[in-house]
């Protein structure tokens, strides 16, 4: 039986082009630092471009909120998870990573916009981080990949403390963004696994060959 390249790619643990993946992860993280530096230098407050819950004028914050942070300490807290999780999430290629990220970006942002606290502005890349982590934790189950499940166990052991961010009660922490980010990561893992299965070639039945 010939190996299925699509299946092999879906079950991969590390990016096929690690240098390119590392460059993408590092470039995105540097972009976050550049945005924060601009926010510090300019007289205005870029954070006001974040998500204003249930306000139509604040809906565009879904697009900008992951790029904004409420100070350097907020950005520092997100840096390592963003670097590690984004790198590992490129195991199936940068194109698949872009799709997964888009799903997490939009779903987590809309979730905050729908149920976030009133009269607040939500910013930060933690929704993306939770989404990538959830994606990495469950993709092995959908792909039936032992290696990915093993990586998930390691990630859960190292970053289990992040799970506390899914619970309400921490002032100044958007548990809504974390929860919807995690749900979006599970959704992205399921959708991409279904996409991979639908692309598998199905041999034609005998007598039904076209020619």
TrEMBL record:
GO molecular function, one term: serine-type endopeptidase activity
Ranges that cross the membrane: 20-42, 62-85, 97-115, 121-142, 149-167, 173-191
GO cellular component, one term: membrane
Record-linked SUPFAM superfamilies: Rhomboid-like
UniProt xrefs under Pfam families: Rhomboid
Annotated signal peptide: none
Keywords associated with the record: Hydrolase, Membrane, Protease, Transmembrane, Transmembrane helix
GO biological process entries: proteolysis
Membrane topology: Multi-pass membrane protein
Chief place where the protein resides: membrane
Annotated ranges, domain Peptidase S54 rhomboid: 62-194
Compartments it resides in: Membrane
Family in the record: Belongs to the peptidase S54 family.
PANTHER family, per the entry: RHOMBOID PROTEIN 2 (PTHR43066:SF1), RHOMBOID-RELATED PROTEIN (PTHR43066)
Name of the protein in its database record: Peptidase S54 rhomboid domain-containing protein
Organism: Amycolatopsis camponoti
